[in-house]
Design a protein that fits this description.
Blueprint lengths: L1 H14 L1 H29 L11 E10 L2 E5 L6 H8 L3 E17 L2 E10 L3 H4 L4 E3 L11 E5 H8 L8 E4 L3 E9 L12 E4 L2 H4 L13 E6 L5 H9 L1 H5 L1 H6 L2 E6 H7 L2 E2 L2 E2 L5 H28 L1 H13 L4 H38 L10 H27 L3 H6 L11 H31 L10 E5 L8 H10 L3 E7 L9 E2 L3 E2 L10 E5 L4 H5 L3 E4 L13 E5 H7 L8 E4 L2 E9 L14 E4 L10 E6 L5 H15 L7 E3 H6 L3 H35 L1 H9 L4 H35 L10 H28 L2 H5 L3
Parallel strand pairs: 4-9, 6-8, 18-23, 20-22
Antiparallel strand pairs: 1-2, 1-10, 1-11, 3-4, 3-7, 3-10, 5-8, 6-9, 7-8, 12-13, 14-24, 14-25, 15-24, 16-18, 17-21, 19-22, 20-23, 21-22
């Protein structure tokens, strides 16, 4: 019997090649899109859940009342790890993690820049990053030890065994390779090319900044069967126990599960708010489900559109004794057969698209075709799709009454509401929602991109202060200016597009004792205003040559002035972390971090502080020179005074543009999925048009005989579909408005939703629908009426 089912399915496939091609194509595209989305979702939900002790690992978070609400931050004070091990019996181990950026690795004549991590010795015992060589229990015990990833080891030593070999780090000290780690998987938030022991911080003359500093990632592993509730009760007051400032500010610590950190770690007023990455997982899961559903709906529509051609087959089968169950099984078997063919094509599409898809999503997704589990999941996916797609056609076709079928009166074509029409409405509703979302996402990106930045990013370049740049900074600056490469140069603690320091507890005359505002901190030596083009509304920039006391000078922005409420701010004193700063200037608000959020209060400090250090050289290139010439001359100057390091520059405008990458990615995905949905929906609409034309073929013949023109018949057949699109627009508009309103609520600086967006989406849908159905309508209108009326 099964052999007979497949034989009939194959014959129907060959007999209707065009129909079969449309059916399989639509299903294959829908399956491929769903598989790609599911691969991304699987990668996201598995982030850092592969560690052996994931269920016992927690990240330490801070919680404090600040800026009128409870703020949570994921970095804490460096001494927290040792205090946790000492005071909490539930804790088995605690480790600290911080970044080691742009470090120079020298082996003989080979010099390579790498970025890694500085960690406590128990790091490799807490996390399951397997060592290919070395002992995880001892690899980081020595101050001069280094663990390399496999890729890093190969880039330095080639195919030679790196174990026990020496590397000169940053031209300061020799380190011995004590371990080679398997390259990091693509589903972890950790990102490093090497690991150094925590003792390196002291070797590098960088001391822990104590309990008042909050810049260290800290992880805790609880003992087996330890109570997280009990541990969190003790964690709450731990910082206050060791810090007077923490008692004053009522700082609290809490443990947050590692397995939830990537997807759910988002807090509003101290409470998890479900605004983390999990909402994107849910959103794309819904999109994958809808795309697959729409592909199946398309399959249903195309299958039932040929109902008249299969009707007599069904009628004869029933007359000779076929049961409904066997007919249902026959049609579902045909659907599964077509689904398998579509599935094979879908896998080919996925494999072809994966490289570009990975570049776009910044992932390393892969389909392991050598794994039996992959094939089992794939077969299950195909069976599910085949059953879903074939269920309605199977029950629809098998329900025909033999007497009506053989008389040719088995179905009415002019029903007001039919399942096929409802399915097309669902398809186009989803497509219209995605069109609207795409338009609004683009509006939001453009709205933020066109926002006044507050500084001039043209010809603004920065370079990290690596190697000998700190000690040769003045020589580099003078030569850049004298050679005409740059018109202004300054050094800062961070790039203009990032915030690397913030804090609270500042004091000034007239401050409200209950004020707990957090200020962003920025550090410069002099000429930041000239270099970045900051707009001064009062006072001046820092100038150490003319005003040596500007080492304790302070520039504030307008948002800071509103909080401090100074009528005459110039000369006022602001105390921060043991330094009394005197205000020398006020600048217009400028965007330091997020272009989608209101500007925060900023303190631009002079060169005095011990709590920040200079990390970046900012250069305003001379716009009168060709950019290529400026870069070439700047490279010569930097390599002259810092020969061991490459000239690794970055443009501020490119760094600023990266702030829009996430929204651009969302918009592109929405546009891509909208395009796929519209394409598949058009196939479904094409099927419904075929079905309508088949069922009204005699009516069309009579109308033509009575003198109806091609235009009149085309209009007659097309208007019903326009009604479906209009209904889809009515259904989609409130859904899209609600979804986009919720999405925009996460941005303080956001665009408003305009009525014309919905009108544009509706117009596009109508045009697409008309273009889709016009072929079938015109074909039916041009058909010879003699053929359709011959049987009469």
């Amino acid at each position: 019997m099964i052999r007979n089912f497949f034989k009939i399915a194959y014959r129907n496939l060959i007999r209707s090649k065009g129909f079969s091609a449309l059916n399989i194509t639509g299903l294959a595209i829908g399956m491929a899109a769903a598989i790609l989305i599911l691969l991304w979702i699987q990668n996201e939900v598995s982030v850092d859940r592969f560690h052996k002790n994931t269920d016992r690992i927690y990240r330490v978070w801070n919680r404090v009342v600040e800026d009128g609400g409870i703020q949570c931050t994921s970095t804490v004070s460096a001494p927290t790890a040792r205090a946790v091990e000492k005071d909490l019996p539930e804790v088995e181990r605690a480790v600290r993690v911080t970044r080691a950026n742009n470090m120079l690795f020298s082996v003989g004549d080979k010099k390579i820049i790498k970025t890694g991590g500085i960690v406590d010795t128990g790091y490799l015992q807490m996390f399951s990053f397997p060592l290919l060589k070395g002992d995880p229990n001892t690899a980081l015990n020595d101050m001069h030890s280094v663990v390399l990833t496999e890729k890093t080891a190969k880039s330095i030593f080639g195919n030679d065994d790196p174990m026990g070999k020496t590397i000169l780090l940053d031209n300061k000290a020799n380190f011995t390779v004590t371990g080679v780690m398997k390259d990091l998987p693509n589903n972890t938030v950790f990102n490093f090319e090497f690991l150094l022991p925590w003792s390196y911080i002291k070797l590098d003359k960088k001391q822990d900044l104590g309990w008042n500093d909050n810049s260290t990632r800290t992880y805790v592993m609880l003992k087996q069967n330890a109570s997280i509730a009990s541990a969190n009760v003790k964690m709450k007051g731990l910082k206050q126990k060791y810090s007077d400032e923490a008692r004053k500010m009522k700082w609290e610590l809490f443990l947050y599960p590692l397995e939830r950190s990537y997807l759910y770690a988002s807090f509003t007023n101290g409470v998890e708010d479900n605004n983390g990455r999990s909402k994107f997982i849910q959103l794309f899961g819904i999109i994958a489900g809808f795309i697959l559903l729409i592909a199946c709906i398309n399959f249903m529509n195309l299958s039932t559109a040929r109902s008249e051609k299969r009707a007599k087959e069904v009628g004869i089968r029933k007359v000779v004794g076929a049961q409904k169950a066997s007919l249902v099984l026959q049609f579902i078997g045909e659907s599964v057969f077509l689904s398998f063919l579509a599935g094979i094509i879908a896998i080919v599409i996925v494999l072809l698209c994966l490289p570009d898809y990975n570049r776009f999503t910044e992932k390393q997704l892969a389909v392991d075709i050598s794994d039996i589990n992959t094939w089992l999941l794939f077969i299950g996916f195909i069976l599910f799709t085949g059953l879903l797609a074939g269920s309605y056609p199977a029950f629809f076709l098998s329900s025909f009454t033999p007497v009506k079928v053989l008389k040719g009166t088995f179905k009415k074509a002019d029903a007001l509401v039919t399942p096929r029409k409802a399915l097309v409405i669902l398809q186009f509703s989803f497509a219209i929602v995605l069109i609207i979302c795409t338009i609004i996402v683009k509006q939001q990106i453009d709205y933020a991109r066109n926002r006044e930045m507050g500084y001039n990013k043209d010809n603004l370049v920065y370079h990290m202060m690596t190697g000998d740049i700190p000690k040769n900074y003045m020589l580099i600056k003078n030569e850049l200016l004298q050679s005409g490469v740059a018109i202004a140069v300054t050094k800062t603690n961070s790039p203009l597009t990032d915030r690397w320091s913030d804090g609270w507890g500042q004091n000034w005359k007239g401050k409200d004792p209950n004020d707990r505002t957090s200020f962003d901190r920025f550090l410069e030596d002099e000429d930041l205003g000239k270099t970045a083009g900051l707009q001064f509304v009062q006072g001046r920039d820092l100038d150490l040559k003319q005003f040596p006391t500007d080492s304790t000078g302070l520039i504030i922005n307008e948002s800071s002035l509103k909080i401090m409420k100074f009528k005459n701010p110039i000369g006022q004193v602001v105390s921060d972390l043991g330094v009394n700063w005197h205000i020398v200037g006020v600048v217009k608000d400028f965007i330091l971090t997020n272009p989608y959020e209101p500007t925060r209060p900023i303190l631009i400090c002079g060169a005095k502080p011990s709590f920040m250090q200079f990390n970046v050289v900012q250069m305003k290139f001379n716009g009168q020179n060709p950019l290529a010439d400026n870069l070439k001359k700047a490279q010569v100057i930097f390599q002259k005074y810092n020969p061991q390091y490459p000239f690794d520059y970055k443009f501020v405008d490119e760094s600023y543009a990266q702030k829009f990458d996430n929204e651009k990615r969302q918009g592109t995905l929405a546009a891509l999925f909208a395009g796929l949905t519209i394409f598949i929906s058009c196939l479904g609409l094409f099927g419904l048009a075929s079905y309508t034309a088949e069922n009204r073929i005699k009516e069309i013949g009579v109308r033509k005989v009575l003198g109806a023109s091609v235009a009149e018949i085309t209009t007659l057949l097309s208007k019903d579909f326009l009604v479906l699109v209009v209904v889809s627009l009515v259904v989609a508009t409130p859904v899209a408005y609600w979804a986009m309103s919720k999405w925009l609520m996460s941005y303080s600086y956001r665009v408003s939703i305009n009525w014309w967006v919905f009108a544009l989406a509706g117009a596009l849908s109508i045009v697409i629908a008309l273009l889709t159905v016009s072929y079938q309508s015109i074909k039916a209108a041009l058909a010879n009426p003699i053929r359709s009326l011959r049987s009469e």
